[in-house]
Design a protein that fits this description.
The chain is of the alpha+beta class. Helix content is 43%, strand content 15%.
Length: 117
């Protein structure tokens, strides 16, 4: 079974990430902030040509349950975590969020932890 939800542990806290397919305005906001489509960003990460400037907008928009989410502002947890760790640690999480949104992700692969970072 495929899912579009990623359960993660970042910055020592449980978090859930999901980009809903029925929120085109949110997707347009992300694409505007990063300057490319989500698919192009996914390909950049897969190719190893990513830029960390996309991580905060994608993860903030996908952070489920955070009060900022639909207002287009940043997640405090995501910002704090990205500032406290090497940014490359989160490239796999961003890739999973994008893959889950674009194609679905097998449930057994829909997890992430930065605990080893």
């Amino acid at each position: 079974m495929k899912t579009d939800i990623i359960d993660a542990v970042i910055g020592g806290e449980q978090a859930r990430f999901r980009l809903e397919r029925n929120q085109p305005f949110l997707i347009q906001q992300i694409e505007h902030k990063v300057g490319k489509s989500l698919f192009a960003l996914f390909r950049d990460i897969a190719d190893g040509t990513w830029s960390t400037r996309a991580f905060l907008p994608v993860l903030s928009a996908a952070h489920v349950g955070a009060p900022h989410r639909l207002m287009g502002s940043e997640s405090v947890l995501v910002r704090r975590t990205l500032e406290g760790q090497p940014p490359g640690v989160y490239a796999p999480l961003v890739a999973k969020v994008l893959e889950a949104h674009l194609f679905g992700l097998p449930e057994e692969e829909a997890t992430f932890t930065d605990a080893a970072a």
